[in-house]
Amino acid sequence: xxxxKDDFNKRKSEIEKYFxxxxxxxxxxxxxxxxxxxxxxxxxxxTETIKILxxxxxxxxxxxxxxxxxxxxxxxxxxxxxxxLPINSLSEKTQALWLKQKAKGLNDPYxxxxxxxxxxxxxxxxxxxxxxxxxxxxxLRAKEDDKDLFQLSGNIxxxxxxxxxxxxxxxxxxxxxxxxxxxxxVDIRRMRNRLAHGRITFAExxxxxxxxxxxxxxxxxxxxxEGILNNIEQYINDEGxxxxxxxxxxAIAE
Length: 254
Known about the structure:
InterPro entries: HEPN_MAE_28990. This is MAE_28990/MAE_18760 family HEPN-like nuclease. There is one protein chain. The chain is 64% helix and 5% strand. The longest helix has 36 residues, at 47-82. The protein has helices at 2-25, 47-82, 92-103, 113-128, 136-143, 158-168, 176-181, 185-196, 202-206, 211-237, 248-253; strands at 31-36, 39-44. It has eleven helices and two strands, in the order H-E-E-H-H-H-H-H-H-H-H-H-H.
């Protein structure tokens, strides 16, 4: 989880630098002076350039969100794997994650019946023998930068994060103002996708957007995702991926 938070803070710092500069460039009568062999020159920052820079803010914010989601999912899988637990020691949600990984490709109409039989036999044997579960395949693919690994590309907003929370078992509630801040993620996602797919130009996107508005989007997105990261860190520290004992009878049996 430390790697995830370190990466988040690094990206956050980059964004803060960008928006600090954008605030300055949005002032009246801003010029940039530069010097080369032919002397000192002055460039005026026009309104079209500011529109483009404001719109680019959507991409920076969304990139932070998607990268952080990808990283915290990997952090969860690594934390589970490091505990070397058999499947019957894990929560139902964690068991489902592992089984989904193992069952991948079994619905392929071109796979041979014998291959399915062998893979199912191997799966059942791992469960019976209480083999320690692992997510090596997913983690390896993540390191190889498999963009479709978690199906996050262009999809991240508060609702999608709630779905991830339900799938992986962590808490998606961040409370108070942070919860309200999450509502703007859908606007960030939509505008990012329109820009990324060329449906709108950067100047068109930034035309009716003030610097104060895009900075507000940035602050809200960071506040919300920080709350989610804190929840995930708590989930990992509390080993929320383990099966909970629901009754004294089960406790004695274990």
